[in-house]
Amino acid sequence: MTKAKKKTFLHMIKKLKTPTNYVESLKTKVQMEGKLWGLKSHDYHILIQQIFPLYICTLMEEELQVSLISLSQMFNQLYIKVIDPNNIDVLKVEVVETKSTLEKVFLPTCFDVMTHLVVHLVEELIFVA
Questions:
Q1: What is the three-class DSSP state of 129?
Q2: How do residues 50-96 score in pLDDT, each as one tens digit?
Q3: How many CB atoms lie within 10 A of CB 95?
Q4: pLDDT digits 0-9 by tens, 94-115
Q5: 36 close to 30: Cβ distance less than 8 angstroms
Q6: Domain boundaries in the chain?
Q7: Residue 13 CB neighbour total at 10 angstroms
């Protein structure tokens, strides 16, 4: 993101209104340097799965939008309470496709072993379901 888009994104987060105890107050977590600071793991989950896809549509190119929104949807499907075993094979294909589109957009140096972990999370669903 450019600095202007990053500033816009953080301004949107700062103005976000959420129900009480939904996500810790994001207003206090936006620092003057343009960083999100002090978020807990639940806050990151909500940010990636629900808030980020809403704001990304106005700030990024279409190919990147589709890839990142697809990634957010995958995390939503990974963390639901009831898993449909019929959807696991579809999710496996979607994970690989999304990962390959992200690799087309971003430099290879942006990826490490943690980005590959998503593929194995889907494989772990087979044993759970």
A1: coil
A2: 888 887 777 777 878 888 888 888 888 888 888 888 888 888 888 88
A3: 21
A4: 888 888 888 888 887 878 777 7
A5: yes
A6: 1-59, 61-129
A7: 17
Q: CA 103, CA 124: separation in Å to the nearest integer?
A: 23
Strand partners, 30: 36
Closest to 94 (Cα-Cα) out of 64, 67, 129, 128: 67
Interatomic CA distance for residues 52 and 27, integer angstroms: 15
Residue with tokens 């390959």: 100
Nearest Cα residue to 86 out of 118, 129, 120: 129
Task: Evaluate whether 96 touches 116 at the Cβ level (below 8 Å).
Answer: no
Q: Give me the amino acid identity at 91.
A: L
Q: What are phi and psi of 62, to 5 degrees?
A: -60, -45
Instruction: State the pLDDT confidence band at 10, using cuts at 50, 70 and 90.
Output: confident
Separation CA 114–CA 76 (nearest Å) = 18
> Are 59 and 86 a contacting pair, CB within 8 Å?
no
